[in-house]
Specification:
alpha+beta, N-utilizing Substance Protein B Homolog, Chain A, Rossmann fold, 4-stranded antiparallel sheet, 6 strands
């Protein structure tokens, strides 16, 4: 018997929230994974990869669709364009998924979502894409080509090229598209790094020390963060290493009063509060109640009292 809701339908829901309704991608994905905790780990990994991959490569995906569809992406119905976008990501970047499965499942999803009359259009576009994907011609203009290949807006590339040479810009773009480990910062106000490592390993998490900072770790092998009791208890914060380095550079003195005026979701603010060792105060601000709500959630989880 078919499942009432499959992974591709869940991906479509997330893409609709993010692309059509301006929901933050990490919020939409996190909420969805929390909602569907009962799914198999492989199914949840598929949802994460296709969602993030489609969003990261969307400029390129839309360019490819324009090669094989007479209807421009912006003219398509929102549900159809996002079914096609996630399908093209699978065709181009997921060799483990057969092209026939991508096409067939996309057609089924089109019908399930009430767009049966368009199933022929979806099937035709995807089968043409699958056949012709290897011969896709990219723009001749160097900046436009980089923009499409790396899904980076041209205005950003022109700013970079005003400061760096082409080779450096290509290295930056290549790095952006590399899969990166999740980095976490130990909440040293609650436990030592060694204690955190032991706790994570008992939860089945693969842990590696990070070469840049003594309190940073790279983690992998877990299902999702909300499923880790160590995360729920505030024993660590998920934070990019470059964000942690901000706290190192700021290097606040104990007793300082610090204001972070663009703080959500609060990673750097909490890091600075930890560095004050229970002294001083950090005031974390942002533009909306939604954003400050995210900060407050992390304050409550991490258990720090010298931050508001």
């Amino acid at each position: 018997m078919a499942k009432p809701l499959n992974e591709r339908e869940i991906v479509l829901g997330i893409l609709m929230d993010v692309i059509e309704h301006d929901v933050y991608s990490h919020i939409a994905l996190g909420n969805t994974l929390s909602k569907y905790q009962y799914l198999d780990k492989k199914e949840r990994a598929f949802i994460t990869r296709v969602t993030e991959g489609t969003l990261e490569h969307m400029l390129e995906i839309d360019y490819i669709l324009h090669q094989f569809s007479k209807v421009k992406v912006k003219k398509m119905k929102p549900v159809i364009r996002n079914i096609l976008r996630s399908a093209v990501y699978q065709l181009k970047y997921m060799d483990s998924v057969p092209d026939s499965a991508v096409c067939n499942e996309s057609v089924k999803l089109t019908v399930k979502k009430g767009f049966g009359p368009l199933k022929g259009f979806v099937n035709g576009v995807l089968r043409s894409t699958a056949r012709g994907l290897g011969g896709t011609e990219y723009p001749k203009d160097p900046v436009a080509e980089l923009s499409v290949r790396y899904s980076m807006p041209e205005w950003i590339l022109r700013k970079w090229l005003a400061e760096y040479d082409m080779d450096t810009v290509k290295k930056i773009l290549t790095y952006f598209q590399k899969e990166k480990p999740v980095t976490v910062r130990c909440n040293t106000s609650r436990l030592t790094l060694e204690e955190l490592v032991q706790r994570l390993r008992t939860e089945g998490v693969t842990v590696k020390s990070h070469p840049y900072l003594p309190y940073a770790l790279s983690i992998a092998g877990y299902d999702y963060l909300g499923g880790l009791s160590s995360f729920r208890e505030g024993l660590f914060a998920v934070q990019d290493i470059s964000s942690m380095l901000v706290g190192e550079i700021a290097s606040p003195e104990e007793g300082s009063y610090i204001m972070d005026v663009c703080a959500a979701p609060g990673g750097k603010s909490l890091h600075l509060a930890e560095k004050l060792n229970g002294t001083g105060h950090v005031e974390a601000r942002d533009l909306t109640e939604y954003k400050t709500g995210l900060i407050q959630e992390n304050i409550d989880r991490m258990g720090l009292e010298n931050i508001s």
